[in-house]
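Input (UDP-N-acetylglucosamine 1-carboxyvinyltransferase):
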Amino acid sequence: MDKYVIKGGCRLTGEVNISGAKNAAVAILPAVILSDSPCRIENIPDISDVKTLTYILKEMGARVEYLDLHTVEIDPRPIMTDIVSAEIARRIRASYYFIGALLGRCRNAVVPLPGGCNFGVRPIDQHLKGFVALGCDYSLDNGMISVSAKNDLHGANIYLDVVTVGATMNIMLAAVKARGLTVIENAAREPHIVDLANFLNTMGADIRGAGTDTIKIHGVQRLRGVTYSIIPDQIEAGTYMVAAAATGGDVVVKNVTPKHLESISAKLVEMGVTIEEGDDTVRVLCERPLRKCNVKTMPHPGFPTDMQPQITTLLSVAKGTSMVNESVWENNRFKYVDELRRMGAQITVDGKVAIVEGADRLKGAPVRALDLRAGAAMVIAGLVAEGTTQVEDVQYIERGYENIVEKLVELGADIYRMEEPERTLDKIG
Ligand code: EPZ
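Output:
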């Protein structure tokens, strides 16, 4: 398994270009199968989760052609199956969007139960609640979930018991061609949900209210192929903003939507960082010691849970004692704290709350990327630590960060990727 080797102490300066949003791309790619002609998706991030989904689409029979690293043309017409059999589908959670998309396309879906980041239980009961409301039945068998509707899917009023991004998007995919009106109440409001709705509406759907907690979907007969460009990645941008602050740097983060970053910018300003917003840029300037602050992760527009490991790492070198409350996921989203402690971080976790005592400095050490965002946090810790840090299992990081080593080197970081021969144990697997 490859690793990153990072020599801490470099101040990040310069400009970084943000890629397309992973969590928008992983819903928009499956959504293409709802179309009755080819789609061209632009500004798609060059990351392994996207490669996995285009592989699955090919496996299903779609014609998939990369016009360049960030533009893919997909013709779903040759697809003759309602089964996502690819073993690879188990590896990423987002493969469950094929359920909603297949239900919208042909009223039937057989998909592997989702995999993805390992931080606690990740149920799909709200997805299933929505599908049943739309007229479907489902069964689980041998790690596969089968969902089908005897007759056409019909509109329904669905009140989500929890604010869930996945269920909001999956129900939208299933409802977009259902007969009549579907109303999703207590819907998630993330920017990637708005992006999916915009994509579907460009194809001819009738979705209103995306980005609010009530989404109304009038079913339509057909959706046509379009060209669509994916929004910038809010979390990738936030990660570089935190890295700039952590190293006392001066970085302009480009190709962003500043509005999507408001909760992150507000926290950094609270910690003493200077933030300057442009039309599609955010400048992060850190010239003074970081101040402590308290963070509570919330559904959008609150502070994103996908920025929790990164901000906790920043707080571990701020002055004073901070509190981080993970209100979206179980406390398993603090598993990375053990890795940070190996670098001298003084953090205690009690259930959903982490108490962070700001340390004078972190010390480089060998650490592991336990999941995508925890891995990004380890990289940030390595950038600020004294000495050298080795981050292992970087394949998790590369699921969601395009060219993270090259982008950091461009900003002045001392980081390189070390190819590691497969350990025998890995072979025994
Ligand atoms: C999406 O996961 C993101 N993944 C996650 O980002 C992100 O952390 C999460 O939304 C919250 O923003 C993708 O978009 C591919 P949820 P998702 O359904 O949809 C509970 C990353 O780093 N819940 O919004 O799986 C659930 O247990 C990844 O890019 C139910 O109870 O998250 C959690 O506590 C990691 N029943 C809460 O809702 C359900 O049916 C939020 O989950 C579904 C969810």
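The CA atoms of residues 134 and 155 lie 6 Å apart.
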